[in-house]
Design a protein that fits this description.
By secondary structure, the chain is mostly helical. It contains 13 helices and no strands. It is globular and about 60 Å long.
Length: 313
């Protein structure tokens, strides 16, 4: 089984790099001298992809995870299928509606520290990414140790359930290499693609289109821009995007966790999605990716500790 997992892992990078190329070309294809701020603020209800396209794109990960993870019981299948969706959905929508392509490119450049935004410089974002990711991982380790100490019985029951379910997906104590390969792939690839999809593509898609459903049909572009940049509009759009982000995780957490803990985890993921959106807005894309890497590493830490119980030794 370890050999099969290794073979899938070796096939993964070429598939992923082939898939990431359309997203990165969206960013690089636009001229660096374009007026990104005017692209992001000069909204028009007639331009870009319709709202239903973004709603459909945001919902698509739910059936993808259900089929690959719940029905087929394949962790690698779910990871690779999701990563393909995170690439192909934006590529398809941006190809059909070029105005959306321009807006996504402008949003990505701004989130990388370009002009017109509140984000930090790229160098400062890199430092923030290391700090946020490290703090998240250390905090997760401390939380596990505290739960093991103060709630030993409940924690032991939860880890037994996680270990039992993990075995179904091929994560066993005898397969250290397979678990390590999946963990490395999960932490290296997933955060970047998720941040590009949820916090750049989908968030700015909702940002641009949702306002027309809350304002009069003849609303001026400046009125749309004012709504989307205001507190109420920003909160509504961030929560909506984060609800989509949390929804596909439900298929996973309800498999591994008891019902109350799983429900709390999904609610927490909505809040965490809003936090990541705030990081993209105030720190930058790289900082949010760093925080996301730390969170995914914390998930792998919890999974591997449930399998091998090494933190309590």
């Amino acid at each position: 089984k370890s050999g099969a997992l290794g073979k899938r892992f070796l096939q993964g990078p070429s598939l992923c790099m082939r898939g990431v190329q359309p997203i990165m070309s969206v960013v690089s294809a636009e001229s660096s001298n374009a007026d990104d701020e005017s692209l992001l603020e000069g909204t028009s209800s007639a331009a870009g992809a319709p709202l239903w396209a973004f709603v459909l794109g945001g919902f698509l990960p739910v059936p993808v995870v259900y089929v690959t993870f719940v029905r087929l019981q394949s962790a690698w299948g779910a990871a690779l299928a999701l990563e393909a969706a995170f690439v192909l959905v934006p590529a398809a929508i941006c190809a059909v509606w070029p105005e959306t392509r321009k807006r996504v490119a402008a949003a990505a450049r701004q989130a990388m520290g370009g002009s017109g935004g509140q984000q930090l410089s790229l160098r400062a974002q890199l430092l923030a990414a290391v700090a946020l990711g490290g703090a998240t991982l250390v905090g997760a380790a401390l939380a596990i140790l505290l739960f093991e100490h103060f709630f030993a019985s409940e924690w032991s029951h939860a880890t037994r359930q996680v270990r039992r379910e993990a075995l179904i997906y091929g994560f066993s104590r005898s397969d250290e290499q397979g678990v390590a390969l999946f963990g490395a792939w999960f932490c290296a690839v997933n955060p970047l693609l998720e941040e590009l999809f949820w916090r750049i593509f989908l968030a700015h898609g909702f940002d641009h289109r949702a306002a027309s459903h809350f304002l009069p049909a003849n609303a001026a572009p400046r009125a749309i821009q004012k709504w989307t940049r205001g507190t109420r509009g920003t909160a509504a759009l961030w929560v909506a995007t984060s609800a989509f982000y949390a929804s596909y995780h439900a298929n996973v957490v309800f498999v591994f966790l008891p019902l109350p803990a799983a429900a709390a985890a999904v609610a927490g993921l909505v809040g965490y999605g809003v936090l990541l959106q705030l990081l993209v807005s105030r720190v930058g894309l790289v900082g949010a990716v760093g925080a996301h890497v730390g969170a995914d590493a914390a998930v792998i830490l919890g999974l591997t500790d449930a399998i091998w119980e090494y933190l309590r030794r």
